[in-house]
Amino acid sequence: MFSKFGLSERSLAALEQKGISTPTPVQQEALPAALAGRDVLGLARTGTGKTLAFALPIAERFERSNEKGRAPRALVLAPTRELALQVAGEMEWIAPQLRVITVYGGTGYGTQAAALKRGADVVVATPGRAIDYLNRGVLDLSQVRIAVLDEADEMLQVGFEEAVETLLAATPAQRQTLMFSATLPGWAKRLVRRHMHEPVSVNVVKDEEVSYREIAIESPLSGRIATLSDVLHAHGAEKVIVFTRTKKEADEVARALTARGHAAEAVHGDLNQSQRERAVGRFRSGQAGVLVATDVAARGLDIPAVDLVVHYRMPERPEPYQHRSGRTGRAGRSGTVIVLHSARERRDLNQLERAIKRRFEHSRAPRPEEVQQAKLASLLRRSAAQPAADRAVWRDVAEDWIKRADSESLAGLLALLLGGAPKARSLLTGEEGWRTLELEGAHLSVGKVVAALARAGFNDVGRVQLAGKSAYADVRESGLEEKMAEVRDLKVLLAKKVRQASPRTGKQPRPAGARSKRRYGRS
Predict the structure, then answer these.
(1) Cα–Cα distance, 505 to 467 (Å, whole number)
(2) pLDDT class for 514, splitting at 50, 70, 90?
């Protein structure tokens, strides 16, 4: 109960009004020290309730002031405008006696500057815009008594290291400093040594249990959109966040998914605030089921109940992977995280597993029949939810079709709604334009399989994988049946599914000279 922390009746009433009665682990550990005025270093992931762990001490320490033009007594720094706006919203209801000003980029200077000149108790800011106002003499940090760094590791990730150092140096040395981060990279450790005084360390990350499945699916980049679309259909998740590496890629992926029948919205730093709010609003309301986002744009988005997180590309470091994946499996819910990777990124995937100390489930892209069944199941769920009056409009037509056993019309209707015959696709990689053959014979090797296929006229052979007494090989579809008939000494048929590769021969060698640029070691 929050009452054990000695909070004011005002704060307890605000918590009760929001239906918040039990502290989260990070609040439980951090609040006693923070309320006592101690510096606190908190390691906690996004969505663990850390905002209240620093908002409550601010609300308890400061009373209302009517002084015009007053300088802020609390400064909260956040890496993105979305997170800044979210934090400011929390501050406003937990500390209604204080004037909270939000300062962030991507909008004009005039309105925010005017608000600061009128006076503020708390400034919640992104470092870049705060530096601008500091240099212009608009932001006075000389009266700051509490400084908060939220998502400190992300501020390093987006290049705010120098700005944060400058802003802290502009505040009084005797202030209280609260820093929260999911990880503790080298810069954050240096910042602790320079700007914090004997901080109380709180680490709830080490005690957290991952509440989501982690699945790795191999998919060549050339066919990744098709694989992603199939994954979304097969998992049937209501709310999905797909993380991309660049703004351009976020737009491209969102457009491609929309063309394949998914309601997708892109969110990235090139959108203005109204465009972002529209996209996120459609996602929250369920009008769009897929949000395609860059790392930076997704920080601070307060979106509960995300069922599935997809990493469209391999994360370059473990920290972004942890941040992204933490979007699902919150508040006691389960979730799923999927990483799409290429064959040459297997070593990087192994390094990521070692860094996070967990193993992924290794899976293949969904088979065409699995996708079709998932589409049909989704259609049946949606049709069952149609109002009775709407169904009544078409009941006579449906009964007439049943009476005439008109399966052709029904099949045509399903093809229009769900798509027709799926494109040829490899069962090994998910890449379109390939068909996978299953071959059986004695003493199989990759060389023997390739040679037998070449003699039969298969000049373009893709992935080959051995699995016990069988082998699987990707070939182009042109003249498939005629060429299959020409294969000698091996039994050959179209594969319907692929058995697990043997440990000795199933791995594909990494291309010579290819080096990993990812850093999955400890910072």
Answers:
(1) 8
(2) very low
Confidence of residue 502 (pLDDT cuts 50, 70, 90): very low
Backbone angles phi, psi at 112, to 5 degrees: -65, -40
Structure confidence at residue 212 (pLDDT): 87
Paired tokens of 357: 């100390």
What integer best gives the mean pLDDT of the chain? 87
Q: Which of 8-12, 24-28, 208-212 bottoms out in mean pLDDT, i.e. has the lowest?
A: 208-212
**Nearest Cα to Cα of residue 518 among 274, 245, 280, 109:** 245
Mean pLDDT of 103-111: 86
C-alpha closest to that of 87 among 273, 301, 391: 301
Spatial separation of the C-alpha atoms in residues 119 and 315, rounded to whole Å: 42
C-alpha–C-alpha distance, residues 53 and 146, integer Å: 13
CB 48 within 8 A of CB 26: yes
Length of the chain: 523
Taking residues 56-66, report their average pLDDT. Answer: 95
Give the global pTM. Answer: 0.69
Query: What distance in Å separates the CA atoms of residue 458 and residue 451, rounded to the nearest whole number?
Result: 9
Strand partners, 475: 435, 461
Pairwise CA distance, residues 101 & 113, whole Å: 10
How sure is the predictor about 359, in pLDDT bands with cuts at 50, 70 and 90? Answer: very high
Residue 439 — pLDDT band, cuts 50, 70, 90?
A: very high
Tokens at 263, concatenated: 């309601």
Give the CA angle between residues 316, 427, 436 to the nearest 5°: 130
Fill in the amino acid letter for 305.
Answer: A
Strands 176-181 and 40-43: parallel
Please report the beta strands in 356-440, taking only residues with DSSP state E, as ranges in sequence order. 361-363, 434-440
CB 163: neighbour CB atoms within 10 A?
19
- Cα distance between residue 446 and residue 504, in whole Å: 12
Q: Where does 175-264 have alpha helices with state H?
A: 186-195, 224-235, 247-259
The residue behind tokens 């290794």 is 362
- Identify which of 365, 276, 288 has the alpha carbon closest to the alpha carbon of residue 81: 276
Contacts of 350 (CB under 8 A, 6+ apart): none
**Per-residue DSSP letter, 292:** E
